[in-house]
Each structure stands twice: as structure tokens, then as C-alpha cells.
């Protein structure tokens, strides 16, 4: 009888452990607005490519996920301070960031793009022609790093907390040109009358990954497995096709 009781207790304990695993709570951070990746729709609901991908990933992982809105320049500090568990907000994988956080396998890759008002006819690759121009970037992004390294001391760099603020200054003629994630510029700038793409898209970094704390190796394995399944079963493509007319996956 004792053996039966012990066996039953072990079985119940194992079942409880499975239930707890299925009820993992995760907090995922997004920088909003950053359309088409994450933004609020007309009803105030959070949506976008990465938001829908995160929802599918959480379902695949059997996780209860809470979505947290966080300004871009506080992303990594917030993660390290345990304000949230993952960053899924178009964070490009770079060697500098990889020293501080653990990245998943990349799940998409898009280039940076140059956008300006109609009438801007300067070659953005000609440093003599660009001298003195005012260039807008979002602070702390790979676009910011690229412009700083390639054009620092040549152009005036104006950094913004949000892409929306940068676009407003471009509209208000306080910027000559902006360098931003290509799909963001495509949706938020080219959709407006009087603006155009200038120059060629610039491929940056090693793609975009989910960022986690360094010690969360088990979580990273779960994230990688879930994303791989979503790519294999067609879920990733179905979400991607809602937001892009081209393939962005790695």
C-alpha cells in the first residue's frame, strides 16, 4: 500500500510539474509605434508583424505572455533589470549587444533605407554632397550606429526616441533625410504624398533576434524551437504575408 501511495504521489507531482511548465508566464517588450512590426490599430489594440509572431510563439511554447511597451533606449536596461523577459522589437543582432544579452536565432532581416521629401536630390553616398545635411535616425539602433560611424562629423545627426517623432520632423522640414528600417520607412513615409526613397537599401547586422538575459539558455532553446516550428508549419509565412509583399525571413 505504501508503494502505491508513493507512486501516486510521484505521479501527481509530475503532473503538477507539467502543468507548471505549461503555465510559464513571460513578459515580452515592444517599442511602440514601429509599424509594421508593432503598433496600435484604430481600436487601440497592439498589433503588427512581431506582435502576431509573438502570439503564435507563445501559443507554441504553452506560455502565458504579457506584452509590455518600452521605449527603445530602455530596452536592454529594462531586460537586465527584469522588467520583462524577452525583447521582440526589431533588435538587430550585433557583437556589442551580444556581449550583454542572449539572442535567439535570427527570425528576419530587412535593410535600412533612406527617405526624404520630393526634391531632395543629393547622393547619400557622396560625403562631399552630404556635408552639413541633417539626418534623422532612431537613437540606439543599427541605423544610428551606421550613420554615426560612416558620416559622423560630416552630417548633423538628429536622434529620436521614436520613429514617429522622426517622421514628424521630416514632414516639418526639420530634417533633410532619414535613415530607418526599410519597412518602417515604406509604411510610414512612402505612404504619404510628397516623399520618396533615395539611394539604395543598406544591409546591416546579422538579422533580428529575440533578446533574453544571458543566463536564460533554456528559454532561448524553447524560443528557437517554437520559431522553427512556426516556419516549418507555414504560420510564419502566413503572418509575414499580411504585412510584407516580399520575403524577410532568414
From TrEMBL:
- Give the record's GO CC terms: cell envelope
Question: Where is this gene product found?
Answer: Cell envelope
Record-annotated Solute-binding protein family 3/N-terminal domain positions: 25-247
The residues the entry assigns to the signal sequence are 1-21
A Pfam family the protein falls into: SBP_bac_3
Tell me which UniProt keywords the record has, alphabetically: Signal
The principal localisation class reads other
Q: Which Gene3D superfamilies match?
A: Periplasmic binding protein-like II (3.40.190.10)
Q: Which domain of life is it from?
A: Bacteria
Q: What protein family is recorded? A: Belongs to the bacterial solute-binding protein 3 family.
Question: Per its record, how is this protein called by name?
Answer: Nickel transporter
- Species this chain originates from: Marinobacter vulgaris
The upper taxonomy is: Bacteria, Pseudomonadati, Pseudomonadota, Gammaproteobacteria, Pseudomonadales
